[in-house]
């Protein structure tokens, strides 16, 4: 993805988030130079990979297959492993109309996916085989706003604004906006996007970036080579 396109997506996403009554934290608006100057104080933000995240899954077709994310807060796997401390995470996402977030599951993370506003969020579900792999012929169990729901393989949940689904490791899922763009909330256990996303197809989690202009704000994928 071109950096100029990423900058445009950031600005449009910020506008949408504000329209639905949310405001991103102050560090979201730091310039790259400000972030570098304050990296010691922002060490947790950097280590936990909080911030802007825009991906086309390495396929170069963002409008068809991609996702906007902003990680608002996140704990560390060390806390999760010892069973105490900051064991949770929270994100805002934007799924555009008919923009696929492809079929995947998580090994560790359980998550609530919440339609915070906009159009209908479609979540397609499949279960796992005995080894945890994708199972085209298996369903499973999720919770819709806390109410148990046993899903059939390939079932497509339709979440209106205010509705949510709780997914656990082994629930294979893909999602997209139906009829328009959707602002999504995600509340989960500690989030590790570098190792805890298992995709059905061999695709990448992060975009490859062509630096045609300077970044307005850093992506989480920028931290390692620009700040660490």
Précis, in short:
Helix content is 17%, strand content 37%.
Write structural notes for this entry:
With 228 residues, the chain is an alpha+beta fold. The chain has five helices and twelve strands. The chain has a single domain, classed as Jelly Rolls. It comes from Thalassococcus arenae. One of its GO terms (molecular function) is isomerase activity. InterPro entries: D-lyxose_isomer, EcSI_cupin. This is D-lyxose/D-mannose family sugar isomerase.
Please render the helix and strand layout as text.
Blueprint: H1 3-19, H2 32-37, H3 43-47, E1 51-55, E2 67-74, H4 77-82, E3 88-95, E4 101-105, E5 111-128, E6 134-135, E7 140-144, E8 147-151, E9 155-159, E10 164-167, E11 172-189, E12 198-199, H5 223-226
Antiparallel strand pairs: 1-2, 2-3, 3-11, 4-11, 4-12, 5-6, 5-9, 5-10, 5-11, 7-8, 7-10
Number of helices: 5
By secondary-structure content and strand pairing, the structural class works out as: alpha+beta
Strand content: 35-45%
Number of domains: 1
Low-confidence stretches: none
Known CATH architecture: Sandwich
How does the overall form come out from the CA principal axes? globular
Rg estimate, integer Å: 17 Å
GO molecular function: isomerase activity
Pfam families: Lyx_isomer
InterPro entries: D-lyxose_isomer, EcSI_cupin
Protein name: D-lyxose/D-mannose family sugar isomerase
